[in-house]
Design brief:
Two copies of one chain form a homodimer. With 399 residues, the first copy, chain A, is of the alpha/beta class. The first copy, chain A, folds into three domains: 78 residues, Arc Repressor Mutant, subunit A (Orthogonal Bundle); 134 residues, ATPase, nucleotide binding domain (Nucleotidyltransferase, domain 5, 2-Layer Sandwich), CATH 3.30.420.40; 162 residues, ATPase, nucleotide binding domain (Nucleotidyltransferase, domain 5, 2-Layer Sandwich), CATH 3.30.420.40. Helix content of chain A is 37%, strand content 20%. In chain A, the strands form four sheets. Chain A has a five-stranded mixed β-sheet, sandwiched between helices. In chain A, a hairpin with a 4-residue loop joins strand 6 and strand 7. In chain A, helix 1 crosses helix 2, helix 2 crosses helix 3 and helix 6 crosses helix 11. Chain A starts with a strand and ends with a strand. The interface between A and B is large, with 83 and 83 residues. The first copy, chain A, binds a DNA duplex (30 and 30 nucleotides) through helix 1 and helix 3.
Chain lengths: 399, 399
DNA sequence: CCCCTTAACTCAAAATGATGGAATAAAGTA
DNA sequence: TACTTTATTCCATCATTTTGAGTTAAGGGG
């Protein structure tokens, strides 16, 4: 329930413990370590770490990996994160379909599920979710929680006309509670691009990074921004509507009322439209992925022309994102074939006037995401880990 | 020391108390209230609030405002924030000058100071600071701390060529410690636009807002972004380099290597260049403010033409910021006369395709800042309050 | 091979600070 | 005046972390 935080609450001993537990678990999720090392890194006493690790080990979330002599002194008992000790559910809700993944805590997919939706009211969709979850539950001894992602934007904004993809009845502040009773699990909700970004930082290309931008190709073009490990949300949960920034002043009209929106040039819909106009794809867009893969394999000129145009607009957009967000890197992912994303990246000509253009970079400025078609659903699953493992600001209360 | 946080640390009882103290003080800074009300709002017990308020009252930071009967029951003793109980120092360091303000905790300016700088090495500048601070100290019984702002970007980035304004020797991670020993006060450092944004949210146009964008006219064009009350920093502290996003593809060349950077069209330097080219301002730009005010008063056509161009570019930029950050509003402030900022705002034609274009807004999408020429120095002072009053994520450790 | 040093770890007591329940104070209401 | 409501205080209790004194298990020097 990330939206509209209104008031910062106080702490007490119990919340302190929960925080410390997340700190310790977060550290061990990053690397195996002995308890004394965790204590030094977190600033906690060894005693506290010892207690917390014992508790986590009792629950199976971490496990001893044996002693490892390093120098003098008694060798530490090294503990490591145990990703197979529990499972998590991720649901992606779109206007036409519901996708589910069940993963372990390391993001490894245990099973998937899918249903086409004819109605999109929460009651109906939550029923479908409960059904899929019931099937999945037989495969996992223990499910920690469920994540839920829906496309933005939320509320009545200037983008609504353009958002046939939005789910109007899905009020972010109400859904988690409904879902919790439907699934009998703790539930977290976020928007697709943000959740996908978290997943990429947890399991994928941005593993270990604290500050990065994730460019999400869904129907349009979304953006998830993670700064210091925390997602940027905005006042109404609508941060990251990258698709509707104006890339070409006086360019192609968009349903939103702007002319030259970026997603008219860089998106799955844009490439589909380009190919349909040239007779390379049926008008309903059926089989897009297969066609794209085939065209890429034979180095098709029409597709290559689209990539050139898209890469030009995308280069400017990424330069802008770099200057505004100063990410460690920008990641491209979502519903486009990996080969096409790779080609787009190869054709980028990033502007020199960027804070990301610096000496001594260890990695490229732009990377491809690793999770492919299931990006959003995996992102949903990652929400659970994010909220279970990542220390937060003092909890926000929602009113 | 906001930059390069590396590790989240654990909590203990003392940190918990410090957090709760900030929560309580933060609440009372927003509105007067009885202790029971604070307890309800923060989720703390009345006893805890009572203890913390007593401590804060002992220090003078809050003071009882008398009883206020409201309904039945014993009327609460209402406590209020006491802005005159202490003072704070704010320093703005630029390559050519050092500006100081001494304010009370409400942002009211008690005195100002100014020195031209011939050298910019930290040792020299810190000496000048200590001198100014010494003079100011006679006016305030108690100084809580000092804030320090410097222009970005930090490190060796692609914008360095363009940043004659940057201070190369000022390494953000080292300065606060040096300054603390020079001033014998707690010191916080941040970049100008970010600090100015915090000040605007604390004392100015965005008072009470949690999520907003502040467009800062310095030499170039900076941006401070506050999301959920926390500044956006980026991986290297360089988030918000708005001036060098490409506004006009293939437009005017910029020292940074890009063509068509926004600050070539919208900045103090841009309007100066426009006026110099037309013989309305001496080539050294001397007397810019007076000239601008005079030209505005007589509705000068040349200036008006600049405003039109600037407003067009600015409208697109603001639309973009809205879609990326989803702020409650965007604020324009800094080193331009209020009348010019007002005219710019009046001429904006904001794009319709924006998440900020929503029904039921209580305030305009764009506001003018309130603090004028001293914006950055006031921002520096605001840093002290931000760190004293605002609850934070578990403290970051710097390595 | 023994003893010293180093480091990890455990146990029990102490310290910190939040909480909960009972008692008290001060108002409005019947 | 008695009763209800709300704010506040007092005091004992509770949840945690920290501290300090051992204990264990390794390496290194003679």
């Amino acid at each position: 329930m990330p939206f509209r935080p209104t008031q910062i609450t106080g702490n007490n001993a119990e919340k302190t413990k929960a925080h410390n537990r997340r700190v310790v678990l977060g550290y061990l999720r990053g690397r195996d370590a002995g308890r004394a090392e965790v204590a030094r890194a977190t600033g906690l006493s060894t005693q506290t770490v010892s207690n917390l690790v014992a508790e986590l080990a009792r629950e199976g979330l971490v496990a001893p990996q044996g002693r490892r002599a390093q120098a003098r002194g008694q060798p530490p008992v090294v503990y490591g994160f145990n990703p197979t000790s529990a499972a998590i559910l991720g649901f992606e809700v779109r206007p036409d379909a519901l996708t589910m993944v069940l993963t372990d805590l390391g993001g490894k997919i245990l099973t998937t599920g899918h249903t086409w939706l004819t109605q999109t009211d929460p009651a109906h969709v939550l029923g479908q979710m409960a059904m899929l979850a019931g099937q999945a539950a037989t495969l996992a001894p223990r499910i920690l929680g469920a994540g839920l992602v829906i496309p933005g934007p939320f509320g009545a904004t200037g983008l609504n006309a353009a958002s046939a993809t939005a789910l109007p009845d899905w009020v972010p502040s109400e859904i988690p509670a409904l879902a919790e009773s439907a699934l009998a699990l703790p539930v977290w909700l976020d928007k697709d691009a943000t959740a996908a970004a978290l997943a990429e930082g947890m399991f994928g290309a941005a593993k270990g990074a604290q500050t990065y931008a994730f460019l999400y190709f869904g129907a349009g073009l979304g953006l998830g921004i993670i700064d210091q490990g925390q997602p940027l949300r905005g006042a109404f949960g609508n941060a990251g509507e990258l698709g509707h920034i104006v890339s070409h002043p006086n360019g192609l009209p968009c349903d939103c009322g702007n002319n030259g929106c970026l997603e008219q040039y860089v998106s799955r819909l844009a490439v589909q439209r380009h190919l349909i106009a040239r007779g390379l794809l049926p008008a309903d867009g059926h089989g897009t992925d297969a066609v794209l893969t085939a065209l890429l394999a034979r180095d098709d000129a029409a597709l290559s022309a689209w990539v050139d145009t898209a890469a030009e607009a995308l280069s400017r957009a990424i330069g802008m994102l770099e200057n505004l967000f100063d990410p460690q890197y920008t990641i491209l992912g979502g519903a486009l074939p990996d080969a096409l994303l790779d080609l787009l990246i190869a054709r980028l000509a990033l502007p020199p006037g960027s804070v990301a253009h610096q000496t001594g970079r260890d990695r490229p400025r732009v990377l491809r995401g690793t999770s492919g078609r299931l990006t959003a659903a995996l992102g949903a699953a990652a929400l659970v880990i994010h909220h279970t493992v990542t220390p937060r600001i003092a909890a926000y209360r929602i009113e």
